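2024-03-11 09:14:02 DEBUG pipeline.ingest accepted 1 chain
2024-03-11 09:14:02 DEBUG pipeline.ingest length=354
2024-03-11 09:14:03 DEBUG pipeline.predict start
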Amino acid sequence: MGGGFIGVDVFFVISGFVITRLLHRQPPRQVWRNLGVFYARRVRRILPAATLTMVATVLVAWWLLGANFPDTLLGDVRWSSLFGANFRLIKTSSDYFIPGIAPSLVTHFWSLAVEEQFYVLFPFLVFSLTWLAPRRGRTWLLGAVVVVAIATSAWWSWHSGLSTHTVSAYYSPLTRFFELALGALVALMPSLVLARARWLASLLTLVGMVALGLAVWRLQHVTNFPGLLAWWPCGATAVMLWSGGHGSKFGPARLLEFAPVRYVGDVSYSFYLFHFAWIQIPLQMVAPPVGWWWRIIEIAGAFLCAVLSYHLLENPVRRSKRLDRDGLSVALLAAVCIALSWNATLLVGYFVSK
């Protein structure tokens, strides 16, 4: 789908929504403990699967691309392992959308970088306000701060899109933070009226679904993105998140509760990580494979990798009782993951230089 790139914007809104609900449930007045628990969870959730993808991408690209192996990939992976892929892309003026120029095989890691950069500051803000504000006013105060953040970031996103630095506007965390903050605002908004009027909730969910489908269809060749256009998919996602849990028994949100759809959601993180290499490596080979059936193989291969990663790596790490109670082990896990990514680039760089 030509407008499939807006999936990142949808992801940002969902991420802000889920993480804010998680943060808001933590015990008040325990700022440093809450921060430690939050970042330990992020390491366990994000790093192992991301590291596996980066190492596999470097090794497979070296094996299959031969003379077409891009020297810049090694540096791209190192930046990605430190959640700085977006800054690397801005520095090298890389772009998804330049015809005839193959993008980096880890270009899609920019979205993870933006997400983690947002979560460097946002949890501290939530826990600090929870500690300082009176109990009855915490949610309203946090909501007001989030609204200011949305307005500021959205204005900067629009302003940056008017400049000639379109690559910077696309990958900058400052132009994307309003999308995560929008999800956070939805998590803080009361929805009692929807619980009492299920028909209204179902209607809003349907409107959100249709709007999101139209965005994927229509936003195929756009400039100055994210800017104002990003409000289209982000707003549709926000409406669905706000209303989806309150619809009638046979409302449109039930489509998203269908077991196979939910399973795709479960493995979607690894699916996202693996999909880009599966699509791009064949295109960058000396003799690229052709045929419609090859795209089916790419999708199936990426999904199989996602399923294996989810069950054999992600879940065991996330559910480890040892890591639950041992912060030092989590820190060592993070160090090992970063080291593995760098070692893979050094090893491949050694053989490429021969």
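2024-03-11 09:14:41 DEBUG pipeline.report The chain is about 75% helix and 0% strand.
2024-03-11 09:14:41 DEBUG pipeline.predict end
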